[in-house]
Amino acid sequence: MSDQNLSKAGFTKFRKLVEKETPWSVDRFGRLFAGLGTLIFTILGLSVSTYFLIPVLLINLNLIITSFSDKCAMRNMLKNLGAEERERIYRSDGTVKPEKLNDENIHPLAERV
Fold first, then answer.
1. How many structural domains is the chain composed of?
2. What is the three-class DSSP state of 16?
3. pLDDT digits (tens, 9 = 90+) for 49-79
4. Where in the sequence is the domain holding 71, given as residue range(s)?
5. Distance between CA 94 and CA 92 in Å, rounded?
6. Looking at CB atoms within 10 Å, which of 42, 66, 105, 110 has the fewest?
7. Burial, 45: exposed, middle or buried (Cβ in 10 Å; 0-12, 13-18, 19+)?
8. Measured over all CA atoms, what is the biggest interatomic distance in the chain, rounded to whole angstroms?
9. Local structure of 11: helix, strand or coil
C-alpha cells in the first residue's frame, strides 16, 4: 500500500504514533502485553476452542486484582528486565526528560537513524 492510500484510510496518524521515538515505561509495556494477550486468546477462543477464553478471564482478573493491591508480577518482571517507571522518564507536563531521549529503551518499533 502506498503512503497516499494509507492516508486515505486514516493510518498516517497511527504510523506517526508507532514511529514516534519515545521511551517505553513499565505501564506501557504492561498495557501492550495485556492487550495482546486478550486479543490473541479472544480470537483463539472464538475460532478454535472456548477453552482459550479462560486466559482472557485470568488476564482481566489479574488487572482487577492488581488495581486494588498495586502489586503486579508482570510489572516486577519488566522492572527486572530494565524497564523504568513512568515518573523516571517523563516530566509532570508529559514531555520526555532530555536525558532519556537518547536512552536505549526507546520505542522498539521506531527506526534507528
1. 1
2. helix
3. 999 999 999 999 999 999 899 888 888 888 8
4. 25-100
5. 5
6. 110
7. middle
8. 49
9. coil
